[in-house]
Amino acid sequence: MRYCQLGGDGPRVSVVGLGCMGMSDFYTGRDEDSAIHTIHHAIESGVNFLDTADMYGPFSNERLVARAIRDRRDRVVIATKFGNVRSEDGAFLGINGSPDYVRRACDASLARLQVDTIDLYYQHRVDTTVPIEDTVGAMAELVRDGKVRYLGLSEAAPATIRRAAAVHPITALQTEFSLWTRDPEAELLPLCAELGITFVAYSPLGRGFLTGRFRSPEDIPADDWRYNHPRFQGENFRQNLALVGRIGEIAARKGCTPAQLSLAWLLSHRDVVPIPGSTHRSRVEENARAIDVVLTPEDIAEIEKAAPRGAAAGARYPAAGMATVHR
User: Could you give the C-alpha distances from 60 to 36, 57, 265, in angstroms and in order?
Assistant: First the structure.
């Protein structure tokens, strides 16, 4: 595994992290004991950057991560998030970035994770009813209190990021980025480079689509969140399958899997750390080996021609989700 530093002075993390969301929520086929074994295998493979959030489960994913790292806390960098508010029964209650909520959410995450300090604490979604200066100001107090080491934002727009960084250094920006979601290249990547912020790419494999796993909409169980996702439906699915086919052809010539090619393309960008999610140890190993895929400038040009900006059919979230991003 290779490692890099988050932000200007943040922790050293594996250049490929592990997203833990699907171990507790949204995707079908979850098994907590198997997930813990997967996290252990990731750590043994050199993956030390674990990503969770209070809303995953809800609340159970942080507890799962706590179980997994109980005897290996010093070997991992834990990132968690607040701001997407859910009830115990899973209902979505909105977005909250108020200072009082920031403090309460942090204390609750510390208790669930069973740690004294959160390494990287993200605002999961921007609350447009609260000035970002107030939210980040409260997050900065957590740093001063020793409850949090570094701060991050997720799905924030450029103007919001600049305002936030004027209050306290922002170490990481987490936003969707992959071969079928290339929007960040226009503004966010240049801004992160300017401000010394590491870009953490979530859903770097297109929620599994870019791996070639899905061949028809019928492959998606009805209780899986992707079943109602615009890019996994009807004509959108068929168009996106053609995109995956082009990526697969290039991967075959490079002697790697489509997932490894997709991750290697992300790793070719400066200061981008992908956090693919997986519940299977074999997939964790496959994703980690993306660091061995060497892409020439000619390879990158071919990949980007096969998956140009805007090539994916359908919005990256249903309408309600799209209303909460890039704010």
Answer: 13, 5, 33
Residue with tokens 């290339």: 182
User: Using CA atoms, how far apart are residues 134 and 131, in angstroms rounded to an integer?
Assistant: 5
* pLDDT tens for each residue of 50-95: 999 999 999 999 999 999 999 999 999 999 999 999 999 999 999 9
User: Helix axis angle, 158-167 relative to 188-195, nearest 10°?
Assistant: 20
Catalytic residue among 27, 56, 101, 150: 56
Reported pTM: 0.97
What are the DSSP calls for 142-179, one per residue? HHHTTSEEEEEEES--HHHHHHHHHHS---EEEEE-BT
Q: Are strands 77-82 and 12-14 parallel, antiparallel or unpaired?
A: unpaired
* pLDDT tens per residue, range 269-300: 999 999 999 999 999 999 999 999 999 999 99
Contact 276, 262 (CB under 8 A): no
Q: How far apart are CA 183 and CA 311, in angstroms?
A: 11
> 258-267 and 234-254 are packed helices; what angle lies between their axes, rounded to 10 degrees?
80
Please check whether residue 124 is in contact with residue 84, taking contact to mean a CB–CB distance below 8 angstroms. Answer: yes
CB atoms within 10 A of CB 253: 11
- Give ∠ CA 55-58-60 in degrees, rounded to 5: 110
Q: Which residue, 205, 179, 204, 201, is CA-closest to 192? A: 201
**Interaxial angle between packed helices 281-288 and 258-267, expressed in degrees from 0 to 180 and rounded to the nearest 10:** 50
DSSP class of residue 8? T
Identify whether 227 is a catalytic site residue: no
